[in-house]
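Me: I hope this is not a bother. Any chance you could explain this protein sequence and its C-alpha cells? It all follows right here:
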Amino acid sequence: MTTLDSVLVTGGAGFVGSHAVEYYAERGSDVTALDNLSRTETLEKADESRNTAAYNWNYIEENYPDVELVEADIRDFETLESIVEGHDAIVHTAGQVAVTASLTDPRTDFEVNAEGTFNVLEAARKADSDPAVVVASTNKVYGNNVNEIPVREEENRYWYDDSDFENGIPETLSIDGCEHTPYGVSKLTADLYVQDYAERGAVDAAAFRMSCIYGTRQFGNEDQGWVAHFAISTLRDEPLTIFGDGKQVRDVLYVKDLIRAYDAFLSDPEDKPAVYNIGGGAENTTSLLEFLDILESKTGTRTDISYDEWREGDQKVYVSDTSRAREHLDWEAQVSFEEGIERFVDWYENR
C-alpha cells in the first residue's frame, strides 16, 4: 500500500473522523480536518458533557499540532472546493448522524447528507489533485427490507432464521420498495451518487455501509452511538432506556479497524468495487441485553433499565456480510468486542 501524501477528513472532529485524522497524521501524511462543530446543536439528546466535536478538536490540536484545523461546512461548495484542491484522498465522515433528527428536521438532514456528499464528490471531480474518496454510508440504506428477513427469537437475542443470511447482509440486498426514514433516504442518495461517480470514472470513490462503529473518543447518546451511550451511562450510573425488548442484535466494529478498511481502498482504489458493507461481521455481534452483561463484567455495575416502544426505522437484527471487503481490500476485523470495550472503559476512566 502506498502512503498518502495529503488527506482531507471532513467531519474531522467527529468520532470516526478524528480517528482517520489520527491514523494519517501518525503515518506522516499532511492532514486537514474540516468540521463545522455542530454536533450538540443537531442532536436533541446530546449535551455539552458528551460533546464529541469539542473534545476531539482539542485532542487533535494538542496531540497533532501539524494537522490543519478548518472550521467550515460541506454545504458551502465554494469554500469546500478551495479546501479539497491539493489533497490526494478524502475521508468523508461529515454528516447528520441520527434517524431521530431526520424525522424532526428532514430538510437539514437532506442538505447535509445528500447535498453535502454531492459537494464533496463534485469538488473531488474538479480538483487537479484528483483525490480518491471514501464516504461513511450506513446500513440504513437497506431500510425496512432488513426486517423482511425471517428472524427467530432466542433467550437474549434475535438471529436470522434464513440460511442465506448466516454470514450477514450482503451488498446485493434490495434498497427498493420499502420505508427508509429520511435519514436512510439521504444517506442512500449520497451512496448512489458515490456509485455513479465511481462507475463513470469521474472519481475513485467508495461508500462504506457501516454497522455499529465504536471506540475511544466517542460520546454516544440516546440518538446515536449506542455502544458508547450504554457504556458511559453504566460508568456514570445513569439510567438507560431500551427501545424495544433489548434482544435486537448488531455487529460491532472497533473504529481503528474501520479506518484500516478506508485506507485499504484509498491507497489502491483502481478496479475496486464502490460499495462495501462494513462492520464486525457475524463473528462480532451483540444484543443490547448481552452488552449489558459484558458491561457489568467489566465495570461491576448494572445501571437501571426502562423500556419503551420500538423506534421508527429500527431493525431486529443487522449484521454485515464483510466478505467483499475481505476479498477486495484484504481486510478483516482485528479487535474483538471484549478487547474494544476494555479499551473504551480504560479511556473513559483515564481521559
The chain has a mean pLDDT of 94.
